[in-house]
Amino acid sequence: MTEMTTVDLTSTVAGKSAMPHLSAEEHAARGKAERAAIPRVAHATWEAPPHRPDPIALLEEQAKSRVPELVPIRYGRMLDSPFAFYRGAAYVMASDLATTPRSRLTVQLCGDAHLSNFGVFGSPERRMMFDINDFDETLPGPWDWDVKRLAVSLELAGRDHGFSKAARSDIVQAAMREYREAMRSFAKLTNLEVWYASLDVEQIFDQFGSRVGHKRLHVTEHNLAKARTKDSIQAYEKLTHKVGGRPRIISDPPLIVPMDEFMKGVAREELEQQVRELLVGYRATLDPDRRQLLEGYDFADMAHKVVGVGSVGARAWIILLLGRDDQDPLFLQAKEAQASVLEPFLGKSEYQNHGQRVVVGQRLMQAASDIFLGWERVKSASGLERDFYVRQLRDWKFSVDIAALDRVVLATYGSLCGWTLARAHARSGDRIAIAAYLGKADAFDEAIATFARAYADQTERDHEALAAAAKNGRIRAEIGL
Fold this sequence. Notes:
Helix content is 48%, strand content 14%. With 481 residues, it is an alpha+beta fold. The chain folds into two domains: 38-227 and 402-471, no CATH class; 232-392, no CATH class. A hairpin with a 2-residue loop joins strand 5 (240-243) and strand 6 (246-249).
């Protein structure tokens, strides 16, 4: 094979050094050298270090920057199960992973790649896509951190279902095998082929449908058909009512609190003006065609909304816009973006605005992104600045109910996630080197399954520690919200 000529692009890439243009053989050699430095079996080990930070203290540290009244809801949701605790404990796991062997092969990390952060949504071309759907913690870092987070979530989900140790190991290894084999496939593709790779629901049925059977496929098709109705019009019908002839968001405190309930008179008018200014600044982050589309809508109402598990307490607004008339709604979600939980261990983001960090990471990792995805920084009346990213509230979004999956479907779903994560990493990292590191055999798969068992044990202990903290009054938890 003729070796590619190295081209110096340093001066043309925003003042930063470009990735070296290595031959395929040189990329593969990088991966094999990494394997020599950090053997695949090294990933199997998890043992809490002697001076491991108190996980409850880490959660309390996070809580300092969140809405105080909502933090008990976050703790209450995390107490539901070890898997629920894990969903909210990305910071705890990042702290732990920083003490383990770390790959020098970096990718754009999701940062919180557990099972519930994958799902279906509508692409701009109106295809139903399966992809990662949460990027609050995204940051460049070692590819294996995302893989381990996914693997442990599968182990914990299997425990929630009461599956045997052997069954859980099979499920985790199936996902890891899919990641490994997908990465090896991507290593053989051209750069453009990798960039255009995606997974829509038709492909899912073709590639994975035979694993789950006709009956389960029928249920899935029914759920996906319902997902196609989840858009701004459906949200408008469900979340609003008329007050004085004008549409207003329905109050459901503390989960949804409309603007009129916490601001009155001049203060409310000032807040509305701030929101209008936010929308103007946010529009500037969109491509011109999307900006033109958005300018056809005007502000109507907004409310604070509690979302997720790990995100509870971060400021999240739903914003109602109206276009031609009140039958032409658009619901946007503006979600606060704080520093990634990975930053203390991997270094600060290159982006000053954390909303931009989230958006850039999402566009790098997703095959297709929301047409209204953008960001803005807002200054409060007290002068405090906060970063936000903005997207549609609902756009054919559908998340799998992990608790409803049997053993076969959980294994298939885990494999879907493994393929998707490999494709996301292949877009931003050295896919040839990672594939060479992983190799053809199942040594890595087995090592990660062993790690997943050990770290799931740790998560169960941490969940018990949170329950103890709630019982002795160290923290306050609101259950059932």
